[in-house]
Amino acid sequence: MNDSVTIVIPTHCRHGYLKRCVDWFSKGGYPIVVVDSTLTPWDVPSELCNVKYIYVPGGFEVYLKKFLLALNQVKTPYVAFCGDDDFILPSGLDQSVDFLKSNDDYSFCQGYSYMFQEICHKYILWPMHYDYHDDPSPSWLDRVCSPKSTVYYGVNRTSVIGKALRFMVESDFLTSVNHVAEIDFVLTTTAAKHGKFKRLRVPFGIREYSLTPLVLSRGDMLFDPKFPEYNRKLVEYLSVDATVSKIEHKRLLSLIIESFASQALFDLKTQQSKLRKLVDVLPEKCQSFCELSLRIKNSCQSFLRPGYLPALSVFREPGYHEAMRHMRASAQ
After folding, report:
1. Pairing of strands 5-11, 32-36
2. How many other CB atoms sit within 10 Å of the CB of residue 157?
3. What's the count of helices (H) and strands (E) in the chain, helices before strands?
4. What would you report as the CA-atom Rg of the chain, rounded to the nearest whole angstrom?
5. What is the pLDDT of residue 328?
6. How confident is the model at residue 64, as a pLDDT?
7. What span, in angstroms and rounded, lies between the C-alpha atoms of 187 and 109?
8. pLDDT (tens digit per residue) in 156-208
9. Distance of alpha carbon 14 from the chain centroid
10. Would you kindly state where each structural domain of the chain is located, as residue ranges?
11. Counting CB atoms within 10 angstroms of each CB, which of 182, 244, 307, 317 has the fewest?
C-alpha cells in the first residue's frame, strides 16, 4: 500500500466510469477515497479493501461538502483528485510525490496532461496546455495570474488543499455549477500562497474528452446578493497568514476582478459565437464530428509546439499503454 498519496475520486451518476477508475488505481496499491452524490449508492465490490466509500446524495449544492468529507478521510501527506473518467499514470504520480517530498517550497506538482478520444476503435491523444504550472516565482500573486490556472489535476499537499475547501464550505456561497471556475480559483490561489508550482516533463494525467462542452453563465453571480459578502470573505481569507502590503492588497483585488471578468466574458463569447450557433443547429452526430475534427487539428498543433515535444514521451510510457488496455477491457 502506498502511504504517501491518496486518490480522491468524486463521482455523480457514472458508476460505470467509477468502477473502471477504481480498478485502475487499485492495481497500483494506492489508498482511494470515493465520494458519490448519485441518488442510488454504488455497490462497492468486497475485494476493494483499499477503498473508502462516502455517500452524499444530492446535486451541485453538495459538491464542496463531498470534497471536504473525502479530504477528512485522507491520512497521507499528499492527495491527487481524479475525475471518474480519468487516469493518472503511476510513474507520473510517483515522481510528482517524490518532487514535493524533496522540495518543501513547492505546494503543487504534476506532469504533462492529455485528452483522449476513441475514433473507429482507435484512440487519439493530445496534450493540454498547462504551461502556467511550472512557476517558481517568489511572489505568490505572480503564480496565479493566469485565469485558466487550476491545481485540481495534479498532486497537492493535503494540509494546503484542506484550507481552501474549509474556507469555501464555510463561505456558504459556492453552490451552483456556475461557480466551478471560482472553486478552481480558490484552490489555485491557496496552493500558490503556500508554495510554488512544478510541471515535470513526464506524462501524468489522461482525461477522456467530452463531446458536450459545459457552457456556464458565471455573469449571473453579479446579481446574487451574497456575491459582495463572499468576495469580502475571499480577500480576508487570502490576506491571512501572510504580511500583505498595500500594493499586494491592490494586486489581489485586481487579480480577483480580472479572473472573474475573464471567465464571465468567456461564457458570453461562447454563447454568442457565430460558429457555436452554426454548429448547434446541426444534427447531434454532425456536432460531434465538427468538435472532434477541431480537437484533432488542435492536437496536431499542440504536439508541434517546441515546448511540447517532450509530451510525445507518453507513447513510450508503459503506463499509458496499460491504461489503454484497461479501458478496452472494461468496455467489453
Report:
1. parallel
2. 20
3. 10, 9
4. 20
5. 79
6. 94
7. 14
8. 999 999 999 999 999 999 988 888 888 999 999 999 999 999 999 999 999 88
9. 17
10. 85-278+296-331
11. 307
